[in-house]
Amino acid sequence: MLRFVTGNEGKVREAREYLPMDVEQVDYDYVEVQSDDLAAIAARGARESFHELGGDQPVAVEDSGLFVDALAGFPGPYSAYVEHSLGIERLHRLVEPEDDHRAAFRSIVAYATDADSVDEAAPSGRSDTDTSTDWHDGVTVEDGVAVATFEGAVRGEIVPPRGDGGFGYDPIFEHDGRTMAERSTAEKNAISHRGRALAKLADWLAAQA
Ligand code: ITT
Fold first, then answer.
1. Choice among 27, 56, 63, 170 that is catalytic
2. How far apart are alpha carbons 170 and 154 in whole angstroms?
């Protein structure tokens, strides 16, 4: 059994598709540290949640965001705040005058568990992300708790809003000719940042067995 700590049911639905174990949604509000680094935010959240929820079951958290190249990665870790304050149409209008409309969705899944149950030498998962990045998947051990992080990313372009599907920034993020909101959930999952990070976690869990 894995406890997925999030207020977002969509994240849990996707996790259930990828992971071999039962996944339970837990709506615990962990402290999101202020950082430019999604991996640091997710790892801290997973460690805190693991302790707070009793330390007897593995725990996962996911942190994601939209990183616009021409805006030096903005809104990045502040994506949820910007979506709810500025809104996605205004973010599009901010990018439109720029020559470069490229952007990436990035996701970090952090998995916390008892350090005794982890083989640190196990391979850290597939490396099929289509973006260069300075974030590395890895395992850190502190006070008997191991936290493993997995990154997934998908690159695309910011475009005027199109499509009714998905959520969040999906209508303004185009990948391979269609926005994410113009794809079915299954089509989106097959290429999404979160899908890629979850697939790496699933590979790593299989290598641990
Ligand atoms: P948590 O409870 O797990 O924190 P959340 O929905 O607040 O759930 P984040 O803090 O990770 O999630 O914020 C991510 C932001 O990026 C938020 O504005 C999302 O709408 C957006 N986002 C993340 N994944 C996305 C996706 O697949 N498509 C569109 N927007 C996405």
1. 63
2. 12
Q: Ligand 1 centre from 64 Cα, in Å?
A: 6
pLDDT per residue over 92-135, tens digit each? 999 999 999 999 999 999 999 999 988 876 666 555 444 434 34
Question: Is any ligand 1 atom within 6 A of the Cβ of residue 179?
Answer: no
Q: What is the pTM of this model?
A: 0.89
CA 147 to CA 113: how far, in whole Å? Answer: 7
Indicate which residue's Cα is closest to atom 1 of ligand 1: 6
Q: Which helix (H) or strand (E) holds 46?
A: helix 38-52
Specify the residue with its C-alpha closest to ligand 1, atom 17: 80
What is the C-alpha to C-alpha distance for residues 16 and 2, in angstroms, rounded to an integer? 10
**116 part of the active site:** no
| C-alpha to C-alpha distances, 57 to 9, 70, 114, 115, 200, nearest whole angstrom | 20, 42, 8, 12, 20
Q: Determine the distance separating the centroid of ligand 1 and the alpha carbon of 144, expressed in angstroms.
A: 30
Q: Which domains does the chain have, with CATH numbers?
A: 2-208 (3.90.950.10)
CA-wise closest residue to 112 among 78, 151, 150, 153: 150
Atom of ligand 1 nearest to the CA of 63: 11
Rounded to the nearest angstrom, the distance between the alpha carbon of 102 and the centre of ligand 1 is 19
Residue 125, helix vs strand vs coil: coil
